[in-house]
Amino acid sequence: MTDHDYGAVAAEIKKIIPNDDYDDGSTGPVLVRLAWHASGTYDKETGTGGSNGATMRYKIESSDSANNGLEYARKFLEPIKAKFPWISYSDLWTLGGVVAIEAMGGPKVPWKPGRVDDVDDQYVPPNGRLPDASQGADHIRSIFYRMGFNDQEIVALSGAHNLGRCHGDRSGFEGPWVPNPIRFTNTYFKLLLHAEWVKGKNSVGNEQFYSDDGELMMLPTDMSLVTDPKFRVWVEKYAADRDLFFKDFSAAFSKLIELGVTRGPEGLALRKYSTVARARL
Ligand code: ZEM
């Protein structure tokens, strides 16, 4: 497997990112979200979930409402899978996120191949492991601590909301966080701290926060990063220091896409749930 040319796959992914026909050019952001949701199901207690296995190919996981809209990202990567059939979906989806981040001006994120796709749906993690945007700091902590992240990493990862937007028909929230959502910067943190945010109800009836011109938004979970004092310390650091944000984001995203991926001597990931873990699924 080490003979495979992953650089060639990355080059093909890079080509599909500028795409004026999709969502104001937001192919990159939805690819980043796919990599995150494929990985963010991880549970460190049982070792279940995570990117290895590409379990979102199965109905139980793809139909989790948190994953609404990610069918676009999976579809964008299909021609690349057809061109390089030797790459696993789990490697392709995580590589897609990493390539998109860099192509949109973000940091280089260390990525390793070797994930192996499951052949049936017996290891699909249960729905409900991804965060719920209508909640606050306690909820985010319980979700991300379950994956093994700390407060600093939670804030760094949340900086991905510099990218893309919310779609009412997918998540029940509406709008972009920043004026240029296809450029990876630390603007999200600056806006969180320095813009006026007013709570309102969106057209679907959910509460979110609006900038004074109504063009930009924050989710309730985003706002908890400034109201919670421990999170806020990191928001302030990342708003003031783009390079620190890039460095910490890169490390945290790289950790995210490695969750649950244990490679054997051949470099291939092992599928290895204990009986206890299996019983808990
Ligand atoms: Zn998001 N995210 N996210 N996120 N996310 C959305 C969109 C995007 C939360 C969340 O509920 C939502 C992380 C963390 C958290 C991206 C990346 C990452 C949307 C809008 C919601 C509701 C979906 C829609 O309507 O299409 C919550 C509660 C989070 C926890 C605190 C992390 C971590 C991410 C990556 C590292 C990205 C790139 C998008 C934009 C997707 C797009 O299609 O434009």
UniProtKB/TrEMBL annotation:
<dbReference type="GO" id="GO:0004601">
    <property type="term" value="F:peroxidase activity"/>
</dbReference>
<dbReference type="InterPro" id="IPR019794">
    <property type="entry name" value="Peroxidases_AS"/>
</dbReference>
<dbReference type="InterPro" id="IPR002016">
    <property type="entry name" value="Haem_peroxidase"/>
</dbReference>
<comment type="function">
    <text>Destroys radicals which are normally produced within the cells and which are toxic to biological systems.</text>
</comment>
<dbReference type="InterPro" id="IPR002207">
    <property type="entry name" value="Peroxidase_I"/>
</dbReference>
<keyword id="KW-0575">Peroxidase</keyword>
<keyword id="KW-0349">Heme</keyword>
<comment type="similarity">
    <text>Belongs to the peroxidase family. Cytochrome c peroxidase subfamily.</text>
</comment>
<dbReference type="Pfam" id="PF00141">
    <property type="entry name" value="peroxidase"/>
</dbReference>
<protein>
    <recommendedName>
        <fullName>Peroxidase</fullName>
        <ecNumber>1.11.1.-</ecNumber>
    </recommendedName>
</protein>
<keyword id="KW-0560">Oxidoreductase</keyword>
<keyword id="KW-0408">Iron</keyword>
<dbReference type="InterPro" id="IPR044831">
    <property type="entry name" value="Ccp1-like"/>
</dbReference>
<feature type="domain" description="Plant heme peroxidase family profile">
    <location>
        <begin position="9"/>
        <end position="277"/>
    </location>
</feature>
<keyword id="KW-0479">Metal-binding</keyword>
<dbReference type="InterPro" id="IPR010255">
    <property type="entry name" value="Haem_peroxidase_sf"/>
</dbReference>
